[in-house]
Amino acid sequence: MNVWLLLGLLLVHEALEDVTGQHPPKSKSPKEPGENRIKPTNKKVKPKIPKIKDRDSADSPPKTQSIMVQMMEKGRFQKAAATLSLMAGQALELRCKGSKIGWSYPAYLDTFKDSRLSVRQNERYSQLTLLNSTAADTGEFSCWGQLCTGYVCSKDETKTGSTYIFFTEKGELFVPSPSYFDIVYLYPDRQAVVPCRVTVLSAKVTLHREFPAKEIPANGTDIVYDMKRGFVYLQPRSDHQGVVYCKAEAGGKSQISVKYQLLYAEVPSGPPSTTILASSNKVQSGDDISVLCTVLGEPDVEVEFRWIYPGQKDERPVTIQDTWRLIHRGLGHTTRISQSVMAVEDLETIDAGYYICTAQNLRGQTTVATTVEFS
């Protein structure tokens, strides 16, 4: 009876396989040699939940928001592009959203306090207007929101806007220069720029040496061309000295820029290197003396002099003269020598004592002194 029962169960099992195509649960016992080792396709897989980035993470930098728009024809506004090309003579209107807005624009417009430019702050935006534009107005216009606490304001880096505008003028491929000849100082520890900028975005610009006459390649290693700055000397050397100029070509026309004298200046940066020397430190009544204060420094860094002298409280009449000039110190190195000379005539006893000179530049000041005594 048991045999017939087992045979019946086996037949039912095979019938179910034929109908459903499914197999009974696998036995956990080890597989025999030759068994089917193909994994079933209906394996359950635990779904992966995608990780959501924390938008407020302290590690992620704040997103910047462009706040600048340009006014178009018929009162329409559009987001200001990174670069714009406008015909000279056109009016320019830019707006930046915010109740407190700071602006920057080409220094040329600030230098001459140009009445064509106006900036007005409204309740919700600031408005910059430039009338009767010229090629000389070519440059970067930018704005930023201001975060203010009382009278102290700082720049809001998350709310800024900028655009570089080429004002194209007939017959002017280069942004006009205030002079026909300019000096560019080459320092070994900083970049130097030959500022020949163009007014036409598509212009091809090359750099040339006057003597010996040849083109200077902008190879991307020593020299690069930046349309917003000019030709940039990345690591100036003494052999870069000389007179250079730029040449621009656009629309079948070409133009030569002003000339630039490149001077190499290997002078330490910092407070003035100052010395003082009196024509005589031992004097007699009735003598005349002069006291010389000298500074050797960077060619383009101005120096201011101040004096303290024995007869100052008694309003002793003295003569002070300040001068400066450029000198070459071998191997093509150029230095600025600045001097201040104090002259005192017909000496009296009140003129004896310390003569103190203070020289000051943008990086600090240096004070030196010498004594004058009656013998």
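Next protein, fold it too.
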Amino acid sequence: MLLIKKTAVDSTPSLVFLHHERVFLRSISSIADSSSTKSPNPHSFRVSYLINSCGLSPETAISVSPKLNFETPEKPDSVLNLLRTHGLTQTQISILVRKRPQMLLANPDKTLLPKIEFFQSIGVSRTDLARSLSSNPALLGRSLENQIVPCYNYLKSVLQSDKKVVAAMNHTHSVFLKDLRKYLFPNIDVLREIRVPESSIAYLLNHFPEAIMKNPNRFSEVVNEVKEMGFDPLKVNFVLAVHAISGDGNKLIWGRCYEAYRKWGWSEDDILSAFRKHPQCMISSEKKISGAMDVFVNKMGRDSKEIARCPIALLFSLEKRILPRCSVIQVLSSKGLVKKDLRLSTILGPVEKHFLERFVIKYEEKVPQLLSVYQGKMDSLEL
């Protein structure tokens, strides 16, 4: 009995020990599992900050938070305050943080402010700068001394004014982000080799910088293609044609324009002839082409091929030139005061003052309703 009683007493601590040992092992295993599958805590400080202060969605905040390391709000608060001070809205800040969350850890006074002040110093407006920084936060991530200022100096040497540099930046931020020695210098050299005037080069860089900042091999192919189409490098239409056929996007637009003109009876020669006269007619919208053609052909009775001889007519806004002016010409031609086959360039070319003098004021005694016809059409289109 005594032996049995001893065994029973001795077994209790053993069972207790085994129980605690199993609990301890399970705890260790649980810790190991949790560390191996560690995921951001949706209730952590960083996630809450990204949601409440930066306007990110919970899902985005959770995915972004591992890229950041801050436990107090002081540093990110100072960055957000700087951005707000310089015109960024809450929506723009949310976009910026989502695209470049590490910006929250930057030194606002030493890293961010000098770049913002530089862009402001060359004339970038508060609104444009806020839009640019939110759409492409990499502008704040580039070195001011090694990237931004050298890019500016070269662009200024070609464009000759801060205003044009800013215009180029507003068209594409890549003018300050790409390596100009790799993407711009060789392409400008290609144009200079075939005697494209500096004014045309500056025009292309100012208005369509994305067209000249291409892979040099592809850019050379485009330039040769434009030369083979018969464009004169000495005229500005040469660089407009380079823009029109540069990039996959413009190629798709070209194809849609080509089909649109074919539907209105243009031959391939008509299309190429129109392109040589005004390259932008091949990067217009199908809707604009159809709308203008409908007015000229169906309402004015013009031959569609006449438009091919004056493609600039397609670029005028229906609201501001085509309909009001054509209404006046229709009244005058019905009374035999002007030719029915008056050139479209004669109708659409002059500025408004000269058109009114030549076709309205000149005939106001014979056709007193002309001004009201013109104004009435303008008013109806503005409604």
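About the second fold: Confidence is low (pLDDT under 50) at residues 1-40.
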